[in-house]
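To assess whether the prediction recovers the assembly geometry, we first specified each molecular entity separately, as shown.
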Amino acid sequence: MVDQNASRDGRAGRPRSGLATPRRRAAAPLPLPPLGDQDLADAARLLEQAAPAAALAALRALPDLADRGRLLGDLAPHRQAAIVALMERGELAAMVAVMPHDERADLFKRLDEAARESLLPALAAPERDDLRALAAHPEGTVGAVMTSDFATLDIGQTAAEAIDSLRRQAPDSETIYQAFAVGAAGDLLGAIGLRDLLLAAPDTPVAALLNRHPPVVRAGDPREAAARLIARYDLIALPVLDARDRLVGIITYDDAMDVAEAEATEDFFRAGSVAEIPLPVRRASILRLYRSRITWLIVLVFGNILSGLGIAAYESTIEAYVALVFFLPLLIASGGNAGAQSATLMVRALATGDVRAGDWASMIGREVLVALLLGGSMALAVSMIGFVRGGADIALIVSLAMIVIVLIGSLTGISLPFLLGRLRMDPAIASAPLVTSLADAMGVLVYFAIAAQILDLPA
Amino acid sequence: MVDQNASRDGRAGRPRSGLATPRRRAAAPLPLPPLGDQDLADAARLLEQAAPAAALAALRALPDLADRGRLLGDLAPHRQAAIVALMERGELAAMVAVMPHDERADLFKRLDEAARESLLPALAAPERDDLRALAAHPEGTVGAVMTSDFATLDIGQTAAEAIDSLRRQAPDSETIYQAFAVGAAGDLLGAIGLRDLLLAAPDTPVAALLNRHPPVVRAGDPREAAARLIARYDLIALPVLDARDRLVGIITYDDAMDVAEAEATEDFFRAGSVAEIPLPVRRASILRLYRSRITWLIVLVFGNILSGLGIAAYESTIEAYVALVFFLPLLIASGGNAGAQSATLMVRALATGDVRAGDWASMIGREVLVALLLGGSMALAVSMIGFVRGGADIALIVSLAMIVIVLIGSLTGISLPFLLGRLRMDPAIASAPLVTSLADAMGVLVYFAIAAQILDLPA
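The predicted structure of the complete assembly is given in tokenized form:
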């Protein structure tokens, strides 16, 4: 029933046998190119481009049920939902029984209440329990990404027996390159790589080969913690423990890659003041795109009113010397740009773990020096323009304002991510637009205050 | 000489034996905590925190040369350089001989000319050639990330013979979970996973199990192409071919993770108008931080002068109605913010392959609708403020200007990444600050043009 290559390991090798055996190429006159020629990822892309009914027909034409399950699991969520909606309960239940455990839990979570209630009784008890347990973990946690089909070993086995046991578990395991020894209470005794088993003398006890203190993660931890551990230790699979120290799942390296990409996208969007969009942008509806952007834009409008109020306070200065307005966008934008740069450096450094929440004090001293150098260089550039347009006074005002504004912008940009972290918010919220709005308002005040002072104008 | 766990696969299992055997804990009275207790990544962190001389002493205290080589390879570049500088030529050559091939090539590239010239004669000929070949690939290409210590199989072998052969190659291979059959001319005949070898009957010919069309990448391709293939096909190792179709290396999944993180950082920095910094930010010098930021800031200064010129053109409008300046920061910032959002969505979608260069036309129509909705909502918000501060005329001017400015900003933000891609530049250069500066200048002109028209003022 289950294809021999139905696992993560198989993907590293040849295409799954059921998807690639030439004899199956002629399987059926499909409206789609035959999936038998394709690797899993390519077959999934083909199905995603077809209409749901055609995709379902192509799926059914695969002779091996496990192939169907795996392919269904590999589809983009919205395509998967469209195809599943066309299936009868029995067919879906048979498919779910052979799908990788993490992917079937994701599918289950996306079904509506009625579909779930209808599906559960059609499943065998172990599958039902596994599905419920995996689907119960909140989004964003390790538990929501992990899979429960890991390979286990008996601590009393020899290396040769363990290899035999892995061979038997292969069809139902996400990976056999990393296996785990589990105690009577379900507690993790240790981890071992297939490589070590192969290299050991056949009669070596597993107990002697076991790494008894492998890196572990908790099911309730944020998913990026697992991705970071896997990247740091170059792991193939990271064991996941529940609150009572029992092994409940694994995170594989390919899941870690997906998590890292999703987290990078999230930070990137936050840095651009865009709320997350679950679908690919290309497919998102107008309304969803609108909703992902309007909140921040309105928030920033009110931030920018502060700049307006600053200007209103200096209206008589402006009336007396309207040429000052020429430099206004330039000065406030420079503060915002410098601030956006500082925020960018800090947000990424905090995200990759290069800088920690406690490092703020040590970063701020260097930032002052960098900002003074930057502000000084830019003051030099604009003082010449100031001199040409308005003489020595204006050159002086614009230069001084530039230095102070770049300093303020940079310090805002570097401090905001730390402050957000302290408030238990994502530092990536310290986006370029947010920092720019704050720097703008402060820039207006600094500029006109300096101008009023030097030109001896009324405030 | 070489530790049995000296590979990527070993990291997934127990700590390398040489780094974890209890008997070795008491090895030497070091100024560092004993490395014997540590996993490779942890030992590397410990060494990085020590002074170079202390780190070298701790390294030398490891009894196994392969352990030393692997640990040295795992250190951050600047720490590695500091330690290598303290080594004599013979010691370095011995270390290089046992280091993973990709890491020793990276080390070699970072040595200065004199150190390279001194090292090469001390190496055996095959190592010298390998080092020269790997180090010759330009930064950013697949060749610069790949490793040449891959496992090979003979197409005439049986599955059992192949497993035996992998066992023998394990100590010198980056991974044995994925092996490659190579023809007489060095051409790639196919790939096979250890899992498939284990599951096959022992006398099955390798030729029957081989995937003859695995995904491949070229040594000259950009490194992110390899990372994307590995993520898409969930590969453990991706074969790399040279221009003459010969297998010259592999990229492993853990290298793909590092590449993906580096690429995400690069895009993130570009989006914030910061040039790349090779060191961790925490350790970068003041001057390096300055250099990474000043170019863009100066470029943007000249961009913002356009806004100033726009204002200068409407100086008489401003003199006649100075209250207009109140809304200036608000309006131009809103256009910049909307543009930054659009650019963020597009840059990321292009980077993840969700949107392609040819999709511009289909994106622009939807963007117009989204921008009109956004501009309309924001016009509603500011028209009230405009009414309170200046009456119906001002409310009308501000609302109209807001809609046009948000539309222009959004279209700029969505088009710039495509345009840059067309010019063969990185779309990520379409940073928030760049889009903001462009939107600012256009916003000034739009605002005052509308105001002059409605208030019937001289331009």
